[in-house]
Records
---
Amino acid sequence: TIKACLFDLDGVIVDTAKYHFLAWKRLADELGINFTEDDNEKLKGVSRVRSLEIILELGGKTLSEEDFNSFMTKKNDWYLEYVDQMKEDEILPGVLDFLKALKAEGVKVALGSASKNAMRILNLLNITDYFDAIIDGTSVSAAKPDPEVFLKGAEATGTTPAECVVFEDAEAGVEAAINGGMRVVGIGEEEALGKANIVVPGFANFSVEDLKKALA
Ligand code: B16
Ligand code: MG
């Protein structure tokens, strides 16, 4: 049985990944580091601190602690400029119907995101009330693929890992779910998410009934 569904945010509920990329790209340019969309794949699901470390590794650069922190602030300010313009219509296709169907069936819904901006984004999209629990970058210490974020989601919804299904667009997130003993639906392409129980392109043609059948 499925008693709780745990949703990643970026890339699953909304395509904020493109805004993360634009902000990191701008920062990399300022640092004189070449940064491509391919490189950006490595940043998905990864914390802000680790993301900047990866970019610096790409460019073979190091920064003082002070500069590191000011570049992180800069990136986030730029990211929020994009995010704050988001409207409800940027919720990815099918997501709202899926959330409503889960509510109707009494399945618990939780957020499991690495982002420290998660609450702000849920509020902007007007979907905060769908969530029985919100676990985000402000409440976890270990980054995906560590299962902490999802284990906390299970705990907060009063369910066991075996009763949870995780929805993830990032390889690190799929691994986090598996490490937590949960079933996982990959959102995106089979190539990167092959370890998931099933992979679907999104929620547009995927119902709660389809989910149950696929995991039965
Ligand atoms: P912030 P998710 C993750 O969110 C993003 O995938 C990742 O690209 C980002 O660096 C991370 O959140 C931290 O976000 O800078 O907003 O705290 O996919 O786990 O929902
Ligand atoms: Mg994600």
Note: The chain has a mean pLDDT of 96.
---
Amino acid sequence: MRNEFLQVPATSLIAPAHRQKSPDSSQKTGKRVVVAQELGYCWGVRRALEIVEAAAESTGPIAPIGDVIHNPQVVERLRQRGVEGATSVAEAATRGFRRVAITAHGMGPHLAGEAASAGVELIDTTCPLVTKVQRLAQKLVRQGYFLVVYGDSYHPEVRSVIGWAGTSKAVAAKKIADLPWNAPRGANGEGISTPPRKVAVVSQTTKNVDELMVFAQKLQAMVMPEGGEFRLCNTICEPTSERQNALKRLVEQDQVDVILAIGGRKSSNTARLAEVGQALGVPSFHIERTEDIQDEWLADADIVGVTAGASTPDDVIEAVVAELASRGYRPPENGIRPIDAEYVPSY
Ligand code: SF4
């Protein structure tokens, strides 16, 4: 079978952990699976799914606009419960939906107007941690900052933040070359473009803090000369930070030999987990389902670490753990992590 799940390349921005593997392999307790302490659905995605499922169950079909979640199994399950995505309000209305929903990633303010024009009800499941970034963007713009949203320009969350900023003085960027400036303030000459006096950065909630800091330091050096004012707002959400820290613990504490990052093929945060695992020095693979596991990945692996993207449901994670158990790996005694129904992240 063709291997579509390439081992991800190491990224230069994350310093590889200096793994201290035990020279005495007898210290290992045999073949086993270690599941990251934080993995799978994040708080905001879980909350959004609960809202749309409850709405569909009580009052009929509902169409989230855009990808409700990057996981084909969940998309199918939701479809059977009357929750079916549409690419636009107009398309949802044409297909007969009387209600549409904003996903956890959020949408710009235009969507409410489109829903009103189409005569459909709008349900907002935007994660409150994304709403916080949208409001902060508005505030920074009011305070006169040019807004830089550190993130993927195509991502709905980034587009929603720029939409709420409501200004042409806002841009999405993941690297300095994405910015409309190419030189520090005070520089001049042909083809030179310099930043305005006030620049603020917010981050897409799912980004990596180390990479954000590298980006911000470079931008700060462009803005600060000649009385420039630079502000960095770390808006990476707490669930994302915890997930990234849990992945590091798999490598540094549990000393796993290989990492399986479970999530839909289109899930960028799952791909990112595999990238980080790889950069930390452990062969890491992005898989969508159990069938994707390649025998050769496990050939020399005693301890298999499992993590999962923010849109991966627990049953898919459990299926992967069960598959590993069938291959002779001892599963975690207490299953995958418990869900704390009372948990609310700080924001
Ligand atoms: Fe909310 Fe963070 Fe999940 Fe995004 S990743 S939906 S901000 S909890």
Note: Residues 205 and 236 are 4 Å apart (CA to CA).
---
Amino acid sequence: MPRIRLTPKTHPTGFPMDTVRTVSDAAYPSLSDPTTDPFEAAEAAAEVIRERTGVQSHDVALVLGSGWGQTGDLIGETLATIDNTDVPGFGRAAVVGHSGTMRSVAIGDTGKRALVYGTRTHFYEGKGVRAVVHGVRTAAAAGCTTIVLTNGCGGLREEWPPGTPVLIRDHINLTAHSPIEGANFVDLTDVYTPALRDLARTIDDTLDEGVYVQFRGPHYETPAEVQMAKVIGGDLVGMSTSLEAIAARQSGLDVLGISLVTNPAAGISKTPLSHQEVIEAGQAAADRCGRLLAAVVSAIAARG
Ligand code: 8IG
């Protein structure tokens, strides 16, 4: 009888794959191992953040989505920058591509600290929901009590041209997944903390609010799917945020969600945007969103 030999996958270094470890997973079990407790993994990540930043606790976490990349700079001085790959659970040192960083930022002169994530893991990457929400759980383990989730998205309303920031009032999670494991029935009535939306409107009273619909992606919606999103009560379509918001509520964080409408969703606009319009909208938005975010974070820090 022929014997079946299972040859282990090999890494480009020549070592069998399961012996190749990077800093981020050297001493820690993988999130994709079902026997790993994701909250213990978050504690391990928070411990590395404490060591690398020299502070015991952070206060406000921020996730910068597409279109929001530069907007963290006005919050305050960056006091530490950490490669994601140095923090357990945030991914292997990639063979290709860059890893992203997280920063510890002084919130003006309040004495409080923001933990600013420059990238997120999207559900469509196929790394599992635990990986998607690991940053949220790590923020909670690092002491944060509020998280600001930002994203770039498609808009369903004609009155929101590209470059319009919109507060997320509620979401519809069309991924058919949850970050919560087991019989743990988290209440999502006020998943996006109403008081934080009110706070944002004290800074900019023209801010509108809407319902964010998370699709799995990575493809954009068809016009029919966009119409469906509208019929079921959606105003914004995107590929992130709602799974993170659910995990945040499970961890007891207050959540502020802000979407930047970067394009009309498929089939919404009769006239395609010119490239020039897109660039101008992006530049105007970066300025407005940067100032908005800085003011919001400092108001959150002052709120206690
Ligand atoms: I930027 O139109 C951005 N992200 N699902 N649809 C979805 N995600 C987006 C879109 C969009 N625009």
Note: Residues 66, 152-154, 215, 217, 220-221, 237-239, 262-263, 265 surround 8-iodo-guanine (CB under 6 Å).
